[in-house]
Model the fold of this input.
Amino acid sequence: MDFELSSEQKEIQRAASSFAQGEFDREVALELERNHQFPLAILKKACNLGFIGIHYPQEYGGQGYGVLENSLIVEAFCRKDSGIGVCLSIANFSSEIILRFGSEAQKKRYLIPITRGEAISAGAFTEPDHGSDITFLNTSAVREGSHYLINGTKTFISNGRIANFAIVLCQTDPLAKPTYRGQSTLIVEKGAPGFDVTELGEKMGLKMTSTTEMSFDQVRVPEENLVGPLHRGFYQVLEFFDESRVMVAAQALGIAQGAFDRALEYAKGREQFGQKLVEFQVTQHKLADMATQIEGARCLVYKAGWNFDQGRIDPKLTSMAKMVAGRVAVEVAQEAIQIHGGYGYMLEYEVERFYRDARITEIYEGTREIQKNTIAGALIGKKG
Ligand SMILES: Cc1cc2nc3c(=O)[nH]c(=O)nc-3n(C[C@H](O)[C@H](O)[C@H](O)COP(=O)(O)OP(=O)(O)OC[C@H]3O[C@@H](n4cnc5c(N)ncnc54)[C@H](O)[C@@H]3O)c2cc1C
Done:
């Protein structure tokens, strides 16, 4: 057993951290939040330095690294700024479905522009009536000659307004038994006639991201846009979650660490009753608890990433990492606000934003309850 990151991995971690220190400015972040703007210029720079799609093979613009290396980058970015960090980590959301199951032509057409900062992707699985349960979908894709005709509505889709394309999970056989055996993923490009994107209302956090409803009204998609074999979509998405949930866990880990960093610094500087906050044993215990929670989460996140890179698919471990890291991020950010007192409630001190951004990591890509179902299912040997 070796708990040490390799020197190459440490170098990636250092490079990501120094990029974030140099580029993620606090004032810029607050401005982007206020204006609900995605940090496109920073994304472009991150792409130029090879941070985005580092886990794609070189022929598709990446560097051939794995989920663990990608997690180190996501953690470092979210540690410096929860908002910008999450945006950069989801700029290529669900593109791994193309990476794993797509044709050569699809990989070249869609992945390379992502790594150059010329394209952003979206993954459209959730529907108004099908959230945690996507085993049946109302969005249908029906074959018509050399095309598919898509009809339906997806909701809560990240990046919708700015994405160049979306990977859309559709019901391609409504009569399949069980129903999830009749689903497929199709790529829909921005601007396709009948494809409309509407921004949803204000949300608690992730204010730089676009969260949208996507509607499909007789959208014609060429058969080449089907990803992998017909009727394998549900399985593709589940396999994708094994990777993407590690990424969400890495977001949560970075957010937790970032909130902790700020709390520690504040406690060292602020004086009350003639002593620094950090000298009160209560504060010390809070910091000790927070650091211990973060270290526990880190062990799980790195192990889940490493495990995936070894080719071992273990949804139980991935769900554990996501569930624990998400909870830790929320609890640590909450305690960081407490340590800041009234200042923690104010936008400029950032920890309230870290708290709001942490909260989503317990909801998207499977809620905490769904992660528990996966873990319990594996423990009791439940099939399906
Ligand atoms: C900001 C944001 C960004 C998002 N981005 C995307 C995206 O890019 N693409 C995408 O496809 N989706 C996205 N989502 C959707 C997200 O994945 C869903 O909101 C999430 O999966 C939960 O679905 P739901 O909201 O319909 O809740 P529901 O499924 O209705 O769940 C409601 C509650 O019931 C619980 N529950 C449901 N089923 C069970 C069960 N079997 N056992 C125990 N408890 C259960 C849930 O845990 C939850 O607490 C995003 C959501 C948000 C808020």
